[in-house]
Design a protein that fits this description.
The structure holds two protein chains of two kinds.
Chain A (H helix, E strand, L loop, with lengths): L4 E5 L13 E7 L10 E10 L7 E6 L10 E9 L4
Parallel strand pairs in A: 1-4
Antiparallel strand pairs in A: 1-2, 2-3, 3-5, 4-5
Chain B lengths: L8 H10 L3 E4 L8 H12 L3 E4 L9 E4 L5 H7 L8 H11 L8 E2 L10 E4 L20 E4 L2 E6 L6 E4 L3 E5 L2 E4 L6 H10 L6 E7 L3 H8 L6 H9 L4 E4 L6 E3 L4 E15 L14 E13 L4 E4 L8 H20 L4 E5 L8 E6 L6 H10 L9 E6 L7 H11 L6 E8 L9 H5 L2 E8 L23 H14 L4
Parallel strand pairs in B: 1-2, 3-16, 4-12, 18-19, 19-21
Antiparallel strand pairs in B: 2-3, 5-15, 6-9, 7-8, 7-11, 9-10, 10-15, 11-14, 12-13, 14-15, 17-18, 20-21
Helix pairs in contact in B: 6-7
Classes of the chains: A mainly beta, B alpha+beta.
Chain lengths: 85, 481
């Protein structure tokens, strides 16, 4: 099964971004089943690695003004967090 | 009345076609960047407006790009000759928007095309609308780029229509900046948030062209009445499904809901009116959706902000400049005109004035920088009445020859600003701090007359009989222009 792909905006220094610990971030779904839902954003609880292969799904990284970084990271989404419950 | 009025977006599209200012694109285009790229190139080339008949993944929906990105399209929207000059359009705009306001009329739901389809509850899903990914690198899909948001003051009942960009976050959520000095910002953060009350809103997409012009105008007149003044007849409104706001009955799409206090989520980056992605991705105002209503085969409107010229730059420049003209005229300043070039992304104001007394340039700058309009511009250039304010060559010549590089420049510090200024440092952006400057291009009145430089131009240094002779014989000399 093809990896799912997400992206996220990192607003801190990339070097300081913590890996392999559960954290809440916003991701956008780049490969939804229904293409109309591409770029849907969600708060998720997830673990992230700067290695592309460590976690099941691919995570593309953008900086605060939208600059796409060349190499993807990987992500394991544990659950979606509903901020409006 | 003497001018044509387009009651909806569809009549306006037909007019653009009739005036050969529309390209009908039958080929399917992708909402994911392709449509945005086309509109961007249209803005940069000042091409005809693109009318997209087929949008990938969204059968039944259409889109109109760059609806008012040129003065020609603004003239058409005003029901004027498409070749009207900026001055002619300006004079007509001021004429129509001075005097008695024209109150809107309420129509029944069954007579409102925007109620032809109604989605409530789970069905009201933002991803069922073809919100474009406008620029690569944007923070999300911006469904609302040429639109307006309706809100109401909880104490006075005053209605506001304003253009506040909205990014789709999820099925039910949009997010966008609502700056604290804006009309809606004062209302939401000043009146609803302290009481922890949600604020009802309605986003209007695909309105008639003059409602869009009114929503851009920084006028103290309520925008629904301002639209009526521009149209010369009342705008037709209909009540929303889930709140007590009223929206234009002929609009293509209405998104209803509440602006939520006590929570902000990340929005941006986005290509902005300055031609840059400047303001940071940061927590901003949240809109939760309760209903979506729309016409059959709705036509969304798409603007693409970036380097000049798009409708944000053109219309904000146009209406900001004219509100300043009204302000200065109301104070009895002997101005000959006010103009903001769209290419300045409405940061530069040019004011022509008869230099009747010393200090008049500073008086003008104090008035416009002291007005509520001031966060949207940073530079005022004051030229004399003989300089054509619409002619860039003449204004640049005046700026470079009549403005003393030290005595002619006055700085205004600690001014309100916006996070969108590309030149501001990050801390200034964070606190919306600005700075402003006056370029006084008037020769001082206290110079002895004999010492005032004489402008050397065809019109100024030849006797009238020589000018007439040269003009009369111009073609016979062999010139073709």
């Amino acid at each position: 099964m093809a990896k799912k792909e997400y992206d996220t905006f990192i607003l801190t220094e990339l070097e300081e971004f913590p890996e392999d610990q559960e954290m809440e971030i916003i991701v956008r779904d780049l490969t939804p089943e229904d293409r109309r839902y591409k770029y849907r954003s969600a708060y998720v609880l997830a673990k992230i690695s700067k290695s592309e292969s460590k976690y099941p799904d691919r995570l593309w990284v953008r900086l605060g003004r939208g600059q796409l970084q060349e190499k993807p990271w990987s992500i394991q989404i544990i659950k979606e967090v509903n901020k409006f419950a | 009345m003497g001018f044509r009025v387009y009651k909806d977006n569809r009549e306006f599209i037909k007019a653009l076609e009739a005036y050969d200012d529309l390209v009908i694109i039958q080929q399917e285009v992708d909402w994911d960047l392709e449509m945005g790229a086309i509109v961007r190139r249209v803005c940069e080339k000042k091409s005809a407006a693109p009318y997209f008949k087929k949008i990938q993944d969204y059968p039944g929906f259409e889109a109109l790009g760059a609806p008012l990105a040129t003065y020609k399209r603004l003239a058409i929207a005003m029901g004027m000759n498409p070749e009207a000059t900026v001055l002619e359009i300006s004079d007509e705009y001021v004429r129509r928007t001075t005097g008695e306001t024209v109150k809107p009329v309420i129509v029944e739901k069954k007579k409102a095309p925007c109620k032809e389809n109604i989605w409530m509850g789970k069905e009201a899903d933002l991803f069922k609308l073809p919100g474009p990914m406008v620029h690569d690198g944007d923070g999300g899909r911006y469904l609302a780029t040429w639109h307006f948001v309706v809100s109401k003051d909880p104490d006075t009942g005053a209605v506001n229509w304003g253009m506040y960009r909205q990014m789709v976050f999820d099925e039910k959520t949009m997010v966008g900046p609502v700056l604290p000095f804006s009309d809606m910002g004062k209302m939401f953060y000043g009146k609803y948030v302290p009481k922890n009350q949600p604020m009802p809103f309605a986003t209007v997409i695909g309105c008639d062209p003059l409602s869009g012009v009114a929503a851009c105008a920084p006028s103290p007149i309520p925008e629904d009445e301002f639209t009526g003044m521009l149209m010369g007849s009342p705008v037709e409104l209909v009540k929303c499904e889930t709140n007590d706001l009223y929206v234009p009955a002929q609009a293509e799409i209405i998104i209803e809901g509440e602006v939520i206090p006590g929570i902000q989520i990340e929005e941006a980056p986005f290509g902005e009116y300055t031609g840059y992605r400047t303001s940071p991705r940061e927590p901003r105002t949240v809109y939760r959706v309760s209903a979506i209503t729309f016409r059959n085969n709705p036509i969304i409107t798409v603007s693409n902000m970036g380097v000049p010229t798009d409708e944000g730059q053109l219309l904000r420049s146009f209406s900001l400049g004219l509100e300043m003209r009204k302000l200065l005229e109301s104070q009895g300043i002997p101005i000959t005109g006010v103009f903001m070039w769209p290419e300045s992304t409405h940061h530069l104001v040019v004011v022509g004035v008869r230099p009747a007394y010393s200090g008049i340039a500073s008086q003008i700058a104090n008035l416009v920088f002291g007005s509520k309009l001031s966060p949207w511009f940073t530079m005022v250039v004051v030229v004399d009445h003989e300089t054509d304010i619409y002619n860039k060559d003449e204004v640049i010549h005046a700026l470079c020859t009549k403005c003393h590089p030290i005595r002619g420049i006055r700085k205004y510090e600690q001014a309100p600003g916006t996070p969108l200024y590309p030149f501001a440092d990050p801390e200034d952006r964070k606190w919306s701090r600005g700075s402003q400057v006056l370029f006084d291009c008037l020769f001082p009145l206290d110079w002895p007359k004999a010492l005032v430089p004489i402008k050397v131009s065809f019109n100024n240094v030849y006797p009238k009989e020589i000018q007439d002779k040269v003009l009369k014989n111009w073609k016979s000399y062999g010139f073709k222009d």
